[in-house]
Design goal:
The chain is 53% helix and 14% strand. By secondary structure, it is of the alpha+beta class. Strands 1-2 form a two-stranded antiparallel ribbon.
């Protein structure tokens, strides 16, 4: 993993553990707000896959992104 990708991966993992996200677009916007200005939705998708992030249902029945506990 290249250093910028490693930083983005760490930032993404931190965001997902701190907040509930319904869409990759919400994640992309928050990453941009945290300094990853040129991150694309496709990059977010690849990073989610790399981290093993899954979608689970929250208590409201909405599907949210979550770090797989395995």
């Amino acid at each position: 993993i290249t250093p910028p990708k490693k930083e983005a991966t760490g930032g993404l993992q931190r965001l997902i553990t701190e907040k509930s996200y319904l869409s990759q677009e919400e994640i992309r916007r928050d990453l941009q707000n945290h300094g990853f200005d040129s991150i694309s939705q496709s990059t977010v998708s690849r990073l989610l896959k790399l981290l093993g992030v899954i979608k689970i249902r929250n208590t409201k029945g909405q599907k949210i992104y979550s770090v797989n506990p395995q």
